[in-house]
Design goal:
The chain has 15 helices and no strands. The protein has 427 residues and is mainly alpha-helical. Helix 2 runs parallel beside helix 4, helix 5 runs antiparallel to helix 14 and helix 10 packs antiparallel against helix 15.
Length: 427
């Protein structure tokens, strides 16, 4: 009997990316939830914790620069595999750490491994989807970041309460190896995949410019001389650190400001990160909807991103929140808007650059976001330590929320100046 080939297999691929990104953020989020326990055991100050976050961010930045080029050379299947093995082992090694310095070392190793996720995933989306579907596909897999952040506040306190903090790192870190089995069974590029129909391959390559694309390689250093590269870089540099703040400091914010018990499943955190899942998928859908309505690609992306930038602004008023649910509503809107923004800014890279350079560009932009992620935690740690000593910790958080509220509009404005119509790069 002749085997029936799938016409929509690309959505199976997106589901693989979704679960990988979920695991990626689950492993990343664990330390933020365990912070109140670990800072007592290891006598951390807010600055000590910020240095650990900076160690992750520094390694993540370096890893992005390297992994982007590596994935362009060795392909998405092997590149993703190497990335996941490194980050899962590093996540598990947190369980044997005995010092603050040790946490910095294993966080750095985690950062190197996790840096391969987005360059690989964005390249996979470019390999499997035409432009008009990429933002929606990116929004779906990017929502895994939020699901990971939703699962963590339920899973980690439960493991902590029964088995202790070491097992929280071991169990969450081991999950990645289960995903790896499915990755090797189900993934291959479209042209080599036995389950994909010629009809679907033709649809994937329906963007004529991409179908005729040269296979010649480009040196990543040459990408720094291209204006569109800097459009992506600036956008990531100014906005990625805000999401890292939401990941690494929100548990502590709710604990210190509203006496949230982080040894129990946390409903406020679950609601915040659930909202980000809606933002990620909805954000990807909105620009794709505009394109299907006949809008030019650049207009659809920029209009959607401007809407999301405006949705972050109300977080500035979090200082007026008189109860935890008001704060949850404001932060949920901002975090959801970030993920909607993220789904679209990643897609701007695939709009402007051909597939053969895409992982490198995403890696460079991700590195820029991580550099921001190095500088911002340093600022956050010192602001919070300064106001904590005076007994005014909430003022410190209010200053940080003000920065968060302005970052996206600034990023949008600079990106617009650098690349008004996001013209595709001819390499």
């Amino acid at each position: 009997m002749r085997e029936t080939k799938a016409r929509n297999y690309r959505w199976v691929i997106v589901s693989l990316l979704f679960f990988a990104t979920t695991i990626n953020y689950l492993d990343r989020q664990v330390i933020g939830l365990l912070k109140p326990v670990l800072e007592v055991e290891f006598k951390w100050t807010e600055s000590d914790y910020s240095y650990i976050v900076m160690a992750f961010a520094t390694a993540y930045a370096a890893g992005l620069l390297v992994f982007g080029g590596v994935i362009d050379k060795i392909g998405t299947k092997l590149g993703y595999t190497i990335s996941l093995i490194v980050w899962s082992l590093a996540a598990m090694l947190h369980a044997i750490v005995k010092s603050t310095f040790g946490f910095g070392v294993v966080r750095a190793a985690l950062g190197v491994g996790e840096s391969g996720n987005f360059p690989a995933a964005i390249k996979v989306v470019a390999e499997w989807f035409p432009k008009k579907e990429r933002a929606f596909a990116t929004g779906i897999f990017n929502s895994g970041a939020n699901i990971g952040a939703v699962v963590a506040p339920v899973m980690v306190p439960w493991i902590l309460g029964i088995y202790g903090w070491q097992m929280a790192f071991l169990i969450t870190g081991a999950i990645g190896f289960i995903w790896l089995i499915f990755w090797w069974i189900f993934y291959e590029i479209p042209s080599k995949h036995k389950k994909v129909s010629q009809e679907e391959i033709a649809y994937i390559n329906s963007d004529s410019a991409l179908a005729a694309e040269s296979e010649s390689k480009i040196k990543w250093i040459e990408l720094f001389g291209i204006r569109q590269t800097w459009t992506f870089v600036i956008g990531k540099f100014l906005t990625d650190p805000i999401w890292w703040f939401f990941l690494f400091w929100l548990p502590s914010y709710f604990s210190s400001t509203f006496n949230l018990d982080l040894k129990k499943p946390s409903l406020p955190l679950i609601l915040v990160y659930t909202a980000t899942s809606i933002g990620s998928i909805g954000g990807g859908y909105l620009s794709s909807y505009f394109i299907k309505k006949g809008w030019p690609v650049f207009k659809a992306r920029k209009t959607a991103m401007l809407i999301f930038a405006l949705c972050v602004v109300p977080i500035i008023s979090a200082k007026y929140a008189t109860n935890v649910w008001q704060a949850v509503a404001l932060i949920s809107l901002a975090a959801a808007a970030h993920q909607a923004w993220s789904a679209n800014i990643f897609t701007t890279a695939s709009d402007m650059f051909p597939k053969r350079a895409l992982s490198s560009v995403v890696g460079i932009g991700g590195m820029a976001g991580s550099v921001g992620g190095i500088l911002f935690p340093f600022l956050v740690g010192h602001i919070l330590d300064y106001y904590k000593k005076g007994g005014h910790l909430l003022i410190g958080y209010n200053i940080i929320f003000l920065i968060c509220g302005c970052a996206y509009l600034l990023a949008w404005f600079i990106m617009h100046l650098l690349s008004p119509k996001m013209k595709p790069v001819n390499l």
